[in-house]
């Protein structure tokens, strides 16, 4: 009887770690390879699984121990990547190769949050796109004349202003969603780019659930905290 209970408990644990990714792929030919890509321990992207588009749809199933950032990549397809959070449960992905702004993810708590964050920054994405559309060719070459240098500085100033606005929105999102994996990803990025003080990151980290602390990002932030906190205290 004890063995049956142990086996049953193991089956529950396995089922709790199962994920499914269900997707639609508008404008993608049947038979196109679709890659589910995650990162290894060194941060190098690695294909986790491969399926093919069938009748405009694709599906992945598997197990995951904890939430991690991942993306779907369509072979030989323009704008063919969609980022999402790989975690237990069913994730829905809508991909449109001709209209990437219509791409959407949903289905789990973290992916709903991730989509909400992306939606809130669509206006910023449009601003950046407009700058590159208007100055793409110019930005590919080295400024030589005073006029060109002044123009380059102006473009850089615009991009820096947009980046500051993006950083503020990220911090506001973190403050409203303190105990989420999406916020942990944002904190990790801000911390590594020196846009959040170690003391503030520690306050955020200490409030995380233990399972989030055990994610790759959680361990990464903890390691960086151990390095940066002593340095910050000396200042």
Q: What does the average pLDDT come to?
A: 88
Q: Report the β-strand fraction as a percent range.
A: 15-25%
Any low-confidence stretches, pLDDT <50, length ≥5?
4-15
Range of helix content:
40-55%
Count of individual beta strands = 8
Total helices: the number is 8
Walkthrough of the structure:
- The chain is of the alpha+beta class.
- It is built from 8 helices and 8 strands, in the order αββββββββααααααα.
- A 4-stranded mixed sheet has the order 4-1-7-8. It has a 4-stranded antiparallel sheet with strand order 3-2-5-6.
- The protein is flat, with a radius of gyration of 21 Å.
Write the layout of secondary structure elements.
Elements: H1 2-16, E1 18-26, E2 33-39, E3 45-52, E4 57-63, E5 68-74, E6 81-86, E7 89-96, E8 104-106, H2 109-120, H3 122-139, H4 146-176, H5 181-192, H6 198-206, H7 210-213, H8 216-234
Parallel strand pairs: 1-7
Antiparallel strand pairs: 1-4, 2-3, 2-5, 5-6, 7-8
Helix pairs in contact: 3-4, 4-5, 5-8, 6-8
Descriptors for this entry?
235 residues; alpha+beta; four-stranded mixed β-sheet; four-stranded antiparallel β-sheet; 51% helix; flat
Q: In brief, what are we looking at here?
A:
Helices cover 51% and strands 23% of the residues.
